[in-house]
Amino acid sequence: MVRVTAQDVADAAGVSLATVDRVLNNRKGVRESTVERVMRAMEQLNFERDQAAATLARRRNYRFTFMVPSGETAFFADIRAEIESARAHFTKDRIEINMIMVPPLDPNAIAQEVERLGADIGDGVALVAVESQIVRDTINDLRARGIHVVTFISDVPTSGRERFVGIDNVAAGRVAASLLKRFVHAPEGEIAVVAGSGTLRDHVERRMGFEQVMRAECPHLSVLPWIEGEELAEVVESKLTSLLTENPNVVGLYSIGGGTRGVIDALQGASQNLRVVTTELSAHTRAALISGRIDAVLVQDPSHEVRSAVRILKALTDGTQINEKQERIRIEIFVRDNLP
Amino acid sequence: MVRVTAQDVADAAGVSLATVDRVLNNRKGVRESTVERVMRAMEQLNFERDQAAATLARRRNYRFTFMVPSGETAFFADIRAEIESARAHFTKDRIEINMIMVPPLDPNAIAQEVERLGADIGDGVALVAVESQIVRDTINDLRARGIHVVTFISDVPTSGRERFVGIDNVAAGRVAASLLKRFVHAPEGEIAVVAGSGTLRDHVERRMGFEQVMRAECPHLSVLPWIEGEELAEVVESKLTSLLTENPNVVGLYSIGGGTRGVIDALQGASQNLRVVTTELSAHTRAALISGRIDAVLVQDPSHEVRSAVRILKALTDGTQINEKQERIRIEIFVRDNLP
DNA sequence: TATGATTTGAGGTACGTCAAGCAAAAATAA
DNA sequence: TTATTTTTGCTTGACGTACCTCAAATCATA
Description:
- Two copies of one chain form a homodimer.
- Chain A is of the alpha/beta class.
- Chain A is 47% helix and 17% strand.
- The first copy, chain A, has helices at residues 6-13, 17-24, 32-45, 51-58, 74-90, 107-117, 133-144, 169-183, 201-217, 233-246, 260-266, 283-291, 302-318, 324-327, and strands at residues 62-69, 95-102, 124-127, 148-152, 163-165, 189-195, 221-223, 227-228, 250-255, 275-279, 296-299, 332-334.
- In chain A, strands 6, 7, 8, 9, 10, 11 and 12 form a seven-stranded mixed sheet that branches. Chain A has a five-stranded parallel sheet with strand order 2-1-3-4-5, sandwiched between helices.
- The longest helix of chain A has 17 residues, at 74-90.
- The first copy, chain A, is elongated, with a radius of gyration of 25 Å.
- Chains A and B meet through helix 4, helix 8 and helix 13 of A and helix 4, helix 8 and helix 13 of B.
């Protein structure tokens, strides 16, 4: 197996190495017809520039910034830990990762941080987006400056972000409904929903998906007005406790995210016939899965998401292809027996 | 961020670059005390050799061989396709992948192929192991020759293989039981199990896990003697059809692997109260999930497994660390709504 | 045809490591 | 002490690409 080098391309195209180099790095001063000739040669020889050698020669360090909410949910704590660990891991690939914490759910904070960082923001940004015009504008400004942007966990599809790294949250909601539909044996009853925040697109979408399926396929189950827990365990617990007292016929529960600990605490005295699906894989949900108090947990793997965001940002700055299969973020279903 | 180079280490240790290089590639001719001094310097400076530059300089091509069964199950067809795709994908990292097909379930064939290949087998091997002394010996011989070995999909833990790339199959069986336990609403009934082959350790383990949970937690469900389908759709279909006719009270079904198409065909006329968990994500299982004829599919991601095996073999030959989180192969649960 | 602008070639240096060979220094043996 | 072996330093040339300069060739325009 012999690698095709830029020199080979030069020979094939009948030009010098310097010209191939100019084409490769689209420097100016090459006639259009020559560019095409070189391109053809590259295709024919199936030339792939050696990225390792290139970054070596370039003395290039990739610099990416992660902007994540400073909130205290278990999930974002995980995310931050994974970013730290990725920072260490990726130095060997000359990738420098910068983590910026921003107050959660605050579009202005994102915009301000981006402004404050200026050029220090590096070659690319991964940010947990909040649905807002300010964020859209910020993203578009970054793109206009040639900085790559991926949204992360929570998307703003209508912005110029190049990619979204995360799960399809509508589908996640549908999965939750689909599971509860199968888990709940009662011929009729109520379903409780503990919502997280309504500002992040992800939670809204999950609820949408959940209700779609419930409405369409579970006429025997009625979804109660959802509880807003503000992602705070204490709030969740007290609200859920009173809901369960007031509605003795709750047979299913979906916790959309944030404050899951409160859900588990509130379930202490609940009926054994109450089937539960939550999000977040923490010590609490693990214990509850093992004890059988909850039935399934729907998760996105933070470790995978961080790695994926880094790889995608690198591919974007290198202008190389993205391996779709590798970057597919799964909606993972954990039951007691496939806990990692 | 400045990279620490071998030259920096040399300066810190008060030796020349050449000596650092000797230590780095454990060449002989360096006094023990000097080796230690260099090592200390490397630790202090937190030196990480630049693998990219190293492979570039070494003019090294990694060569790995995948030995996979030539069988016709959808799963192994997928695996082979993924290996092909990995072969293309990894050339840019100077990794050459060789795929050898061996007759399924035949330990001698594996041994013979290894012998036939000789040194052509390259730097490492990934093989779908069959439980057998011959295979154990073959693996140990390879290791003795300094060739790295990982088992793949199906393990032989008592051999000298350095890693197993695949899922915990006992756990997979437990998951299946755990799901069926929740899916089945009937107060009592029978559970049918369609087994694959008994020679591959993976299927045996899945059955173990399944029966563990069923026995311990589902006294109201009795597991019927399992059907041996020999991984052939036709055989599975006919055997399962007669089983369902003879046992009208079958309320749950677990298909362990191989010939899943036959399962689906046999289910055509079955009771709507029959809950079904299978393996393998194919066009057939997809369609059946969507139609609701089956409830869940348990899968291991072939694409991930192949990439993981390659990365692990590379890390082993480089002597670098393995990123455990990245290499965790998931027991994936697919329902209708999280299909990729 | 002369002029200037654009395009191309040639060549060098660098990136961090590997892999040699040879000479010098140090340690060990006689 | 001298001879021998072992250890170390020094140097050089790759690997494939980037990036720069300078000169030569080609082209367009007046």
